[in-house]
Amino acid sequence: MLIRQIFISPGHNFVGHxxxxxxxxxxxxxxxxxxxxGHGLQGDRYFDFRENYKGQVTFFSEEVFEQLCANFGIxxxxxxxxxxxxIVFGVDLLSLIGREFEIQGVRFRGxxxxxxxxxxxxxxxxxxxxxxxxxxxxxxxxxxxxxxRVGDAQLSILPEPIQT
Length: 164
Prior knowledge:
The protein is mostly beta strands. The chain has 3 helices and 12 strands; from the N terminus they run E-E-E-E-E-H-E-E-E-H-H-E-E-E-E. A hairpin with a 3-residue loop joins strand 3 (32-36) and strand 4. It is globular, with a radius of gyration of 15 Å.
């Protein structure tokens, strides 16, 4: 597995803007980010968004982004326009739903598919929401503190707790 890019943003461009124009908070690409258990990514709009929030961090597949670009014939947009935090290569993200896993010493719990919304049609291209309907990324909770960096990363799926 590789972490190709990391993005954070200080504010929401689409959340809370239904029926209005999006905001214009910048998406900032960083080489590393501090994960804070139960809170989110330091400096990101979803940090302390709400208690037990399922999307403290979002993951998106570089392979899916390449398919999206090819499908729409787009070559000039970065993966950051999708406003996911970690762009990764070499992992089936949806297989991590309901699982605890570790990357670069930080533990996560995959909570749900990060379903696309109508804003994808504006941010990327008309039809992007429909294209990504089944594979728009992974929402996860952060279970332990630590930094995540761009580069090589081993994914370890943690054993499920034994039920008694």
